[in-house]
Design goal:
- The chain is α/β, with parallel strands linked by helices.
- Helix content is 29%, strand content 24%.
- It has a single domain, classed as P-loop containing nucleotide triphosphate hydrolases (Rossmann fold).
- A hairpin with a 7-residue loop joins strand 1 and strand 2.
- The longest helix has 15 residues.
- It starts with 9 loop residues before the first helix and ends in a 13-residue tail after the last strand.
- About 2% of the residues have low confidence.
């Protein structure tokens, strides 16, 4: 009996479902806590200034022309508007995602590669899935992974729940959400002048260590932002 030369091997199956990993995580900038080409999850209290501080810090360090701010919260204030970065206020998340799915993959890749995509926020992107359940959190982070696969650096804004003891927990199914992020950064507002971003965990410990803090405010080193009163 002649061998079937067209018979699929297990290696063909592996190859069919393999994706190319073309980048090694590295820091975006020495003054910033973000990983280039990674999913950077920023968590903190609502209305603490996560989005403004993030974008201001990026602008201060020369990334203004690379920023694409996707605003699902539709809460951009006057201070953020003054930074004049490219922002899209998305009214209907479901229709937005469907429209993306209709685009040619190459168009998406060409448009977002090497950009910094600030997604505001994870909770809004989760519409229809939610982030509280295991399946919902996985589905939502799968959407985020889709943006990462374009070659963009992802900065994902999300919230925490706090206890009376001062501890915090990533809102929703925290273990799933943080496991799918390349780094988790805790954002705190100390006072009207000081903002802190602390690395909670990261896939690039050799480049940026857990526990490292980045302070932003009026009375700090070169490269940091000026937080308005």
């Amino acid at each position: 009996m002649e061998a079937n030369e067209n018979k699929q091997t297990i290696y063909d199956v592996f190859a069919k479902h393999n994706i190319e990993i073309s980048s090694i995580l590295d820091v975006l900038h020495t003054n910033l806590p973000f990983l280039k080409d990674g999913i950077n999850l920023i968590v903190g209290e609502s209305k603490a200034g996560k989005t403004f501080t993030t974008i201001q810090a990026l602008v201060d360090n020369g990334f203004k022309d690379s920023i694409i701010h996707i605003d699902f919260d539709r809460n951009m204030d006057s201070k953020l508007k003054e930074l004049n970065v490219l922002t899209y206020h998305i009214n209907n998340v479901d229709e937005f995602l469907k429209s993306l799915a209709d685009l040619d993959v190459e168009i998406i890749l060409d448009s977002l590669k090497d950009k910094i995509l600030v997604i505001d926020s994870l909770q809004d992107l989760s519409l229809g899935d939610g982030v509280d359940t295991n399946s919902g959190a996985l589905a939502t982070m799968h959407k985020v992974q889709g943006f990462k696969d374009t070659g963009a650096t992802i900065i994902l804004i999300h919230h925490v729940t706090s206890s009376t003891s001062g501890d915090f927990k990533v809102k929703g199914n925290s273990s799933v959400i943080t496991s799918k992020a390349d780094t988790t950064i805790h954002f705190t507002k100390s006072n009207s002048l000081k903002r802190t971003m602390k690395i909670i965990n990261t896939r690039a410990e050799d480049k940026i260590q857990s526990g490292k803090e980045f302070i932003f405010g009026k009375q700090v080193e070169k490269g940091s932002l000026s937080v308005p009163k």
